[in-house]
């Protein structure tokens, strides 16, 4: 997620802001929404990778993927193979929301 989606958007955030404006017609909210999406695909992915604040990071990432999934399905009317990866990511994040990071994570280390 970080390499394929987060870093390219982090390097060129204006194109992602424009994409959100065109797709959702959000006006002045386009920039904050784009930066939220970019942070969900970079910062929160790093937190999930090390197991720190895993459940909240996974929840934010799941919401981000749900928006992507629904926009691909109902706004752009893409076929299933196009939005299959978003559905897969959403499923993984949702399972992390409920299961947590596990015993070899920073969350478990902090809790003792």
Draw up the topology in text.
Layout: H1 2-11, H2 13-24, H3 30-41, H4 43-50, H5 54-75, H6 80-99, H7 106-111
Q: Provide the low-confidence segments as ranges.
A: none
Q: What is the strand tally?
A: 0
> What count of domains describes the coordinates?
1
Straight-line N-to-C gap: 30 Å
Shape: globular
What's a quick, concise take on this entry?
By secondary structure, the protein is mainly alpha-helical. The protein has 7 helices and no strands.
Structure in words:
The chain has one domain (2-111). It has seven helices and no strands. The protein has helices at residues 2-11, 13-24, 30-41, 43-50, 54-75, 80-99, 106-111. It is globular, with a radius of gyration of 15 Å.
Comma- or semicolon-separated keywords:
single chain; 112 residues; mainly alpha; 7 helices; globular
